[in-house]
Specification:
The strands form 11 sheets. Strands 11, 13, 14, 15 and 17 form a 5-stranded antiparallel β-sheet that branches. Strands 20, 22, 23, 24 and 26 form a 5-stranded antiparallel β-sheet that branches. The chain has 2 helices and 39 strands. The protein is mostly beta strands.
Amino acid sequence: MNRTTLSLIAGTTALAAVTGFAALSAPDAKGTDTAAKAAAQLPVERTSLLCPAPSTSDLAETSYTSFTPVTKGTESGGKAELQAATEESADDSAGGKDKDRGKDDGKSGKDKSAKPVLTPKEPGKPVTGDSSGGDAPALVGTADGRFAPGWTVQETTEVAAGTGRGLQGVNCTAPDTDFWFPGASTEADRTDYVHLTNPDDSAAVVDIELYGKDGTLKSAVGEGITVQPHSSEPVLLSTLSDARQTNLTVHVNVRSGRVGAAVQALDDKLGGDWLAASTDPSGSLVLPGIPKDATSVRLVAFTPGDADADLKVRLASPSGLITPAGHETVHVKGGMTTAVDLGDVTRGEAGSLVLTPTDRSVPVVAAVRVVRGKGDKQETAFIPATRPVGTRATSADNSGKGSTLSLTAPGAAATVKVTASAGSEGGTPVSKTYTIKAGTTQDIEPPAPGGLKGTYALTVEPVSGGPVYGARTLAASEGGIPAFTVQTLPDDRGTVAVPEADEDLSVLQK
């Protein structure tokens, strides 16, 4: 076969590959209506979730809760399972600990026969699993078919004593290539790790950048970190820089491959929790669900560019938007982390922070550190800026007591439907509709399934009105300590836009 023939075949193949696109964009020779049809919203067919290793404490008790909402339009088949991420080292003989990065290599080789931590049986009903001690691994989950749309997994850990004692919770997240974590720290009382989990068959290469109050913290150790296939790397932030700073922004940038990322922030005195990634840099941000009994709230913000950002700070309270006295605005210098202590800003009422530009819009990321309790009975959680609920959002691992659902409508009023699923061990679903007034936050005691046994999931679906943002707080009293953890409720991305396309072989004649 000569080179001319090969070129003709390659050209024909390339044209065939763009046939679908041409059907949408090529003019109609007959002069008929050429308007493209709106893309259909169809259920996703596959979802991946990654859960970080929960704790190194021997006193840790961890539960996992999996839930998939029932979604119209899905096929009858499919499955979901959550399995341990097992180290696949490039050098099978290299075990032990990497002192430069404070990570445990674990075992070499992926154990394909390992039993899943949990396997859901049907959409609409939660499934739980658990682990004890400090050896629980990171988990890699996949769901397809009817289990994929809106699949949610919550990891909740109780630590009775020691650094980070209290309640730690995190939503297992989809792999990605870019993450921002404002609110981390390398101060003496903090032990912060960024957990990197690679679900794929090839290694991922990651850069970790730290930004303090004066800008970038120089570190060659954070460049080119290799995360082996089907493995997890906990990287101790204090090993990346000699600087000890109270407030940091961590940027995880994936050069090749993709990872799941979350920061575990542990304090010697104030407990600890997981710090989830902030939503993508934006000129306006919402941080929902600050507990009404918060004794201290610290806002940490960062702008990735060179331009400074001036933000108006408002609190969406049950009665409307108010401006915290003495904190009307915050100035964020380009490339530098800014922290503002807002004190007990909620003053006994439900609240959400709303950040908007005072003048020109400059992209910003942000999170708040929230403290409950006083003296030696304090506990910490983090709330990052988040996306709106959108079409639907889900919160797993709710019990009959201790769950608070916080919803805010920063712009126009909104009506939402909240559905409590069946219980993991029994119960019937219940739905209730709520109206959130414009500019307000409403804490609601969520509905519980009838005849509840076990844990249940909450699904939030906007019915009408403006954008809604949400968060769920889990609370438990442990030895007089007000233990709690907060997870935001962004859109579950259970559907995807699929444009309608038809073959149009006429493009081969042009």
